[in-house]
Specification:
The chain contains 13 helices and eleven strands. By secondary structure, it is α/β, with parallel strands linked by helices. It folds into two domains: 172 residues, Glycogen Phosphorylase B (Rossmann fold), CATH 3.40.50.2000; 166 residues, 3-Layer(aba) Sandwich (Rossmann fold). α4 links the parallel β4 and β5. α9 packs across α12. The longest helix has 17 residues. It starts with 6 loop residues before the first strand and ends with a helix.
Length: 350
């Protein structure tokens, strides 16, 4: 009888995409999981999160998980719980394999001190024999691990995925509808989206904006027009219907490690116009004919891309179909499960 291979996954918080991942992947392969925090935006509160316990209870739980696991998957690099596992491994005869799952892009600090400190910690971490890297994408996310010294054979992409089955293919609309979904904060560059939208011919187009945040009141007052709709915060079926009734997602972020709204839009058959600073571009848009990438620092580039998306109907339909097919036929839980199980087999045969 084959010895059971025990896996535990440490998540920071119970975000909805995380709960969906557990349901569709980890539960099905028998992996255990634990959350550090008990709450997350847009998700229910969960019980028995690690950091709700007393300090000594946390140490006892961590040590027990370490002793009872063959493989620990940890989200992020700097949490104290991860470094506790590393410390235990350094002084343990029987090493526990640790996988670092991350959606972080390679971003080298300009500040010399921060640059040196980051290199020290990550190089120390990534060069350990018991450490694996699980980037969320195949591009710059992978380069992060390589840059700080992890060997190629220790790097396996665990794709940033959502539950595509929740989303329905978009409907044909008489009014071409652009869509923004996200927080109303400066880094999301919503003001650029709205200024660019107003430069377009205003017949038979509109834009819907979903979300909340510090800039919501200011922007909704400044852009008070009939074809600019501020829909507020949406989750669940309401958000699914908003995607279904839109035509194109715009993500103009000045910086975005991934951007799961790109997944959600494409799962609904929406092409995406994405800032060049969005992490999902490499895997979901570049050379995929699923949308357009623009430079938010180049004047009128977003306006031109919006006009192209609206005017070229044949290209638009190709983008829409390609986006839907990519998400439902490839960038999904099947791919994630395949990648995870390939690591497990590699460890069993080591």
């Amino acid at each position: 009888m084959e010895k059971r291979f025990n896996i535990i996954v440490y998540f920071v918080e119970p975000a909805q995409y995380t709960l969906d991942l557990i349901k569709n992947v980890h539960d099905k392969i028998g992996a255990k999981y634990r959350f550090l925090k008990s709450t997350s935006t847009a998700s229910r509160e969960i019980e028995n999160a690690l950091r709700t316990q007393s300090f000594f209870s946390q140490i006892r739980i961590l040590y027990k998980d370490f002793r009872n696991s063959d493989f620990i998957i940890f989200n992020g690099f700097y949490k104290r719980e991860l470094w506790f596992f590393v410390f235990l491994n350094l002084f343990s005869r029987n090493k526990v394999q640790i996988g670092l799952e991350s959606d972080t892009l390679l971003n080298i600090p300009k500040n010399t001190f921060k640059k040196s400190l980051k290199r020290f910690f990550l190089s120390f971490l990534f060069r350990k024999d018991f450490m694996y890297g699980f980037p969320g994408g195949f591009g710059s996310h992978t380069n992060l691990f390589k840059y700080y010294g992890m060997m190629d054979n220790k790097i396996i992409t665990f794709p940033m995925v959502i539950d595509n089955s929740k989303f329905q293919k978009k409907e044909d609309n008489s009014i071409f509808t652009f869509l923004f979904v996200g927080r109303f904060i400066k880094i999301k560059n919503i003001n650029l989206i709205l200024k660019s939208f107003l430069k377009l011919p205003q017949e038979k187009i509109q834009i819907n904006l979903v979300g909340e945040g510090d800039l919501f009141d200011e922007l909704s007052a400044r852009y008070n027009k009939p074809n600019i709709l501020f829909l507020g915060k949406q989750y669940g079926d309401d958000l699914v219907n908003t995607y279904k009734n839109a035509d194109c997602l715009i993500l103009a972020s000045k910086s975005d490690q991934w951007g799961l709204v790109v997944n959600e839009a494409m799962a609904s058959g929406l092409p995406v116009i994405s800032s060049k600073f969005v992490g999902a571009n490499y895997d979901l848009i570049e050379n995929k004919d699923t949308g357009l990438i623009f430079d938010p620092e180049k004047e009128d580039d977003l306006t031109k891309k919006m006009l192209e998306m609206y005017q070229y109907k044949v290209q638009y339909e190709q983008f829409s179909n390609n986006a839907y097919n990519l998400m439902h036929n490839y960038w999904n839980y099947d791919l994630y499960r395949k990648q995870l199980l390939s690591v497990v087999e590699k460890m069993k045969n080591a």
